[in-house]
Amino acid sequence: MSINDPALQMLIDRVLSAQSANAQLCIQGGGSKAFYGEPPAGDVLDTRVLEGISSYEPTELVVTARCGTHLAELEATLAEQGQCLPFEPPHFGAGATVGGMVAAGLSGPSRAAVGAVRDYVLGATLLNGRGEVLSFGGQVMKNVAGYDVSRLLAGSMGTLGVILEVSLKVLPVAPATATLRFAMDEAQAIRQLNEWGGQPLPITASAWWDGTLLLRLRGALAAVQSAITGLGGELIEPAHATPFWNGLRHHHDEFFTKAAAAVDGGARLWRLSVPPTTSPLGLPGEQLVEWGGAQRWVCCAAPASLVRDAAAKAGGHATLFRSRDKSAGAFAPLKAPLDRLHRELKKSFDPNGVFNPGRMYPGL
Question: Full-prediction pTM beyond 0.90?
């Protein structure tokens, strides 16, 4: 990335001015994930001035894009070459950008099978709180210099700096896809998912809700056909299956539509991360199980302590994903060692607290 780029210089000038004035900036692209985390604060620093795909090497399975690039544009470019972002990042709106995708660190239905956003970040360029442009990682998996720092940016919610550009590993689109439906209760679905998880099956996504379990199979045609025969269940036509998985990914399927209405009425939508073998948590409200049992969505009006205690007892944690009232905190409180690590990282990259104040935790 050229330091002489006028758009980049404009961002640098804004950061230096904020630093001098002891002001704070809210890093924002399309604003599609503004609901996530603690409420944004500070003057908006619009990253969409820095957009475009910098380089793309289909044969090398690597793409580099600037932070303000629309996620839909990037995925369309990859699709033209029969490739994709396998972790299926949710958009949550037409304005979703590449920088926001990495900063939020959210992955879609295939997360348990293929990995998370951070697993595909090869390198990144960052504008820190001192107005310095720093580069980490590279464009190939072999280049590990600073690689952990690049991955660290995934899910950092913009608290460490402005993600200017990222290099991502991409993969070919699977040649065959199928969806199977089974009728079973939650406990049975969790047991079955874990049993299947120990077998060489091309399961790339799963979702249980309201007595129905759906499995998505992806891979070589022979592997998918063999799994269909061995697993049984009801084969769902692509015309119905594709909209469902897209709805699950972007949160506009039936469960999340109902959850949105409930949140408007005062309920909370929780995202729980627990060991996949965890039995049903027995929490009130509507629940959806993803990622082979490792991700549980719970929409209820129960006290935050009840939900967080249930997740903690299972060996996991709970994030308050959507709510009109986030006084309970969006993210589960950090234990002392992790809290200290987070604060030291923040101080190293953004010593004056310029970026996204309090977006994750107070003081971060």
Answer: yes
Q: Is residue 359 part of a domain?
A: no
Q: What would the pLDDT profile of 123-143 be if each residue is shown by its tens digit?
A: 999 999 999 999 998 654 444
* pLDDT tens digits along 69-90: 999 999 999 999 999 999 999 9
3-state helix, strand, coil in the chain (%, to 5): 35, 25, 40
d(CA 201, CA 205): 11
Q: Is 89 part of any domain?
A: yes
| Residue-range definition of the domain harbouring residue 312 | 254-322
242: its two tokens: 């594709």
CATH number at residue 272: 3.30.70
Buried b (16+ CB within 10 A) or exposed e, 9-30: eebbebbeebbeeeebbbbbbb
Residue 347 CB partners (closer than 8 Å, separation 6+): none
